[in-house]
Amino acid sequence: MEVVNALGRRKAAVARVFMSEGTGKITINKRDIENYFPSSILQFIVKQPLNTLNVADKYDIKINLDGGGFKGQSEAARLGIARALVKFNPEDKSALRAEGFMTRDPRVVERKKPGQPKARKRFQFSKR
Question: What are the chain's domains?
């Protein structure tokens, strides 16, 4: 049984995805996906690449998630799953790219600058 691994990142979240042929079970940090992401929207985000290719019940997926919040983690898992699917079957890449699942979202939080309360906010200017 072949195990394919892939990496997905989003904001501060990192998802290590291990995919093998199976029955469609998705395990995240040794917990079921329904336990880890109670929100159906986040579950949908994770399963998007599988639903696009109609292979939701063909692969067992184990994901190690670390860092970030739940939204970033779900999108990191989505990228990792898409990359793992391409390793299994390279012909699927164009379909996944058309949906935007193969692109790493580069947006991250801007750093806080010294002498300011936040990244871009300034303290109130006083002329006198």
Answer: 3-99 (3.30.230.10)
